[in-house]
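In keeping with the milestone schedule agreed at the kick-off meeting, the structural modelling team has produced records for the first pair of proteins. Each record is given below as a sequence line and a structure-token line. The laboratory manager (R.T.) confirmed that both were archived under the project's standard naming scheme.
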Amino acid sequence: MSPTPDTPRDLVGIGIGPFNLSLAALAHPLAELDTVFYDQRPAFDWHPGLLIDGATIQVPFLADLVTLVDPASPWTFLNHLKSRDRLFPFYFAERFHIQRAEYDAYCRWVAENLPALHFGHQVDAVRFNPERDVFEVDFTQLDTDGEAEALGRTYTRNIALGIGTEPYIPDPLRPLVEAPGVPVIHAADYLTHRADLLTAEHITVVGSGQSGAEVFLDLLRARPHGRERLHWIGRTEAFAPMEYSKLGLEHFTPDYTRYFHALTESVRDRLITTQWQLHKGIDADTLAAIHDELYRRTLHGGWPDAVLTPGVRVRTAGRIATTKLELHLEHIEQNTRSRLTTDAVVLATGYRERPLDRLLAGLDPYLRRDSRDRPRVDEHYRLALDPSVTGTGCNIYVQNAERHTHGVGTPDLGLAAWRSATILNSLTGKETYPLPARTAFTTFGLETPRPQIPPARRPSTLTPLLDGI
């Protein structure tokens, strides 16, 4: 028998990206949980503007939504292949890292088959009702055109926020997006505007991470030799490869996450600024493909009309004339400045976590924050709330909003299943999904030393003889 509208659910998920999709998939077989997940989009999609042909995800296919905690789940990537009669082709393809488009198709398959997911539902507000000891979630049901169709309210004891990230544009570059008639796009929308971009005489890509590299490579492949007219700039001192050594990857394990969470706030903040190459560097294969493409164009003499300049920041930017853009550049190491005129710009400047305050404004009196006014998050991914809320058994879990407390693995797909299982174990109050006690060969901190007391020396009839030798 289905619950009445006033019956509190066990869990409401807000946002259906890969992380809450993982949570929904692992919650699906748990009959004791009543769950529902809302997303304002009409259907699942995952970075559609960056599903460039040949671009791969940066984690192995085993880092799907469920496998690393429940390989027998019906929602594994391998079961997706089986449902499409593609297991043997995948087997012979010998691909450890799958294409982005294939990962997106896998997530769509899961999303289309989980009954707890409700797309076209925009969550408007979240409040705590102290009289009923539950959260109230107000939402608007949207029609196919995205217009409001009906209003609704759901009551729940627990919430999982998976509202994702949003494209980030640094302040010096904001004047560019206010220049109508000139192609200036964020990399998140690259494929949507690719055809228009290719008509531009000169194109500049800003950003030295993976997205910038993939966009530059795709543009390079699409432009004829001698008429590339491309410029790629970035703030980092080099177009640096991502740290991908075996032991380096152990920073994306539960062991490191636990270690990081136990550090002091000031140490965590300092570490985050030093670990950019663990998650913001460029895949070595992408760098090799760019070099191969450039090298191929030198075989008959001459150099491609493409400029790659790291160590550069944009001081200011804006439109000049009618169809031109001008970037005022500063080389960080040389302390020199110059101007770059271009016809189109792709801003591969990354993403930022969506502020939780927009959605949780009604809970602000209950939220507990750190010294920088960020939400506190415990080891089980629960927001720190006033005891008047948590004492009732109500909790708010976050997914991909806790890098300041849980470290570089926060946005990594490889930790999705483990975090989802951790949340479900916390929510059910039992080991619903058994998790390993150890996941890395590296020991990230010193254990509390114990006094080393030598054992008592046992008397021996040989002692006098030995002492005399």
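The second protein of the pair:
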Amino acid sequence: MGHWWQRNIIEPGKLPLLLALTSFVLTFMITRVITRMIRAGKGPFRNIDSGGVHIHHVVPGVVLTVTGGFGAVASGRHGVGPALCAVLFGVGVGLMLDEFALILHLDDVYWTEQGRKSVEMVVLTAALVGLVLCGFLPFGVNDLDEEELEGRGSAILGVALNFFFALLALSKGKARIALFGAIVPFLAVIGAIRLARPGSPWAKRFYGRRPRARAKSRLRAYHHDRRWAGPRRRIQDWIGGAPDELPEPSRTPERH
């Protein structure tokens, strides 16, 4: 175990990244537990208000992220500084992304349907950082051997191709595949060759005069969303808590 730790974590300099990822995930988990307890009216935790203004935890998250980021730049690569800054950065990002939906909508949508975006962003971030920690590098650089890396032309070509496929997948409305494809190249290729989703820039540009392709795209998107929407929502509810149910619209009696 000690040999594996030294070879895979310490020597490549991945300890700060591991500390940042761990503190990020733990902060999100602890924050969600506390907010769910506050929502249920259990435990000693309460919302923080100052002068009638509710202080969201994205505020200390911004402070910790800025402190950890600038501290990492200024601390160099030796000593306990990088590790401490990595923990501060991970905690700050965990607090910030837990309220990502509030930043996106500029509204308190934490326990609404729009608030699911926070959970999705946290999961995506943790997965992407986890891939980097496991040795995957953006745009397929990890697939190049030492000789190819020494030749700048091969390295640039590999990065350009992977970036092109990821961009193509993004234009087809496959944002998640494009993000992961930037790190795992074959995912970008899969996203680039599959049908575009309805309403995506690719579909609007190339399916406008192709009714068969347009109908096939809608049908595939419908079956995909129907198959995966339910499980995805249940996982999000399990991680972050179910959103509040919207009240049924009141019906006014018709006047005759």
